[in-house]
Amino acid sequence: MRPELxxxxxxxxxxxxxxxxxxxxxxxxxxxxxxxxxxxxxxQKLAYQALRVAGREQLRKxxxxxxxxLFS
Length: 72
Prior knowledge:
- The protein is mainly alpha-helical.
- It is built from 3 helices and no strands.
């Protein structure tokens, strides 16, 4: 796997608390010292937040469409 994808996967596993304890500790230490990793983690958090918001918006639109079909 490409290094960039490995980094994304590692950060994703970290955010989901699915890394082994040793890797979690290693990543936490790396995050303390490496601003690039800090930025990557912040960007990944923002991306997940945007996906959640977009998903909720899509669900809201689908529910409104269903409501209109049923009650209009």
